[in-house]
Amino acid sequence: MKLEFALQEEKNADDLTNAVLDIINDSGVRIIIKGGGKSRERGIAFRSYDFKVNRKKVGHFEYELIKGDYKFIFEFDVPEIYTNVADKISALYPRVNLTAN
């Protein structure tokens, strides 16, 4: 299951990332930091995480600053956790158009 959406403010991107990681962490799934960086001067921002259970990849989360918008992708193979994250995103940012693929 996969969600794609965009936010416009850096604080919202940071808050959302922390909320997603809190849900994943509370579920007992291992969070693997794949990479990330920010530079206001250069106009770049990105983060990438994989999620694993018993060495098996069960999900991925990333965002990237593209033309002033923070573009997010969230994928997860465990329906209960996917639903918890989707519900949290909708609660925090009700105006965000979540595109499920």
Layout: helices, strands, pairs:
Elements: E1 2-7, H1 10-26, E2 30-39, E3 44-53, E4 56-66, E5 69-76, H2 79-92, E6 99-100
Antiparallel strand pairs: 1-5, 1-6, 2-3, 3-4, 4-5
Helix pairs in contact: 1-2
Question: Can you give a write-up of this model?
Answer:
This protein is of the alpha+beta class. The chain has a domain at 2-32 and 57-95: Alpha-Beta Plaits. 31% of the residues lie in helices and 47% in strands. The chain has 2 helices and 6 strands. It has helices at residues 10-26, 79-92; strands at residues 2-7, 30-39, 44-53, 56-66, 69-76, 99-100. It has a 6-stranded antiparallel β-sheet. α1 (10-26) packs antiparallel against α2. The chain is globular, with a radius of gyration of 13 Å. The mean pLDDT is 90.
Span of the ends, CA to CA: 6 Å
Average pLDDT taken over every residue: 90
Secondary-structure element string: EHEEEEHE
Helix content estimate: 25-40%
Radius of gyration: 13 Å
Strand composition percent: over 45%
Structural class: alpha+beta
- The CATH topology of one domain is given as Alpha-Beta Plaits
Runs in which pLDDT lies below 50 for 5 or more consecutive residues are none
